[in-house]
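Supplementary notes for students who missed Thursday's class. We covered one full example, reproduced here. Read the sequence, then the structure, then the short commentary at the end.
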Amino acid sequence: MNTQLNLKELERKAFLTTYQDGLWDLLFGLIVICMSVSFYRPASGYSPLNIVMFSCSMVLANVLFWAGKMFITLPRMGQVKFGARRRKRVLTMIIVLSVVVLVQVALFSFQLAAWANPELGAKLNESLPKSDAIGLLIVASISALMVGPSIILVAYFIDFQRGYSIAIMMALAVFLMVYLNRPIYPIIIGILIALPGVVLLVRFLQKYPLRREEASHE
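Structure (token representation):
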């Protein structure tokens, strides 16, 4: 029994070591900065450029993340195979998160349609309270609740302890972006999320330098 517990604890420690590279922090920070572009409502009216810039920046953020995992983390940590219980948690996370993402995509698409179609936007505004401030508060709160719980779920299923505080910061960033319509606030929050990732990445590179023979094969 003790042997099983020790093995599980060792597996958990090995799993948590993969978060020492800071790449998840950097990814979430970049995502917040990307969202500041998509949620911004210009005075001249919605432009499809918003969603194009958001999509491109999100793709770039994910490419940088997986490139970091492949060329920085993997050569230093190696490929680790974890037990069935942890794999099941990851699979459950993927299923739950897929449902959440589908709902978010549907709501986000509806929001884009409302921005692009003034008549639809007017009907949407009629369904909200008459006070613009209250209406914005409701929309901002709903938007924050779409993001925060999703990241909390990810943090729980992948055992990412820093993810809980990151989820709160991301929800706050979305709320401020929608309510105040000023990209500077989520950008600052995104930088605050990413900064610990930069520190962790530097420490990771110092703690796990590539051996000469490994470096020569790259």
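Commentary. The CA atoms of residues 37 and 53 lie 7 Å apart. Residues 84-116 form the longest helix (33 residues). If anything here is unclear, bring it to office hours.
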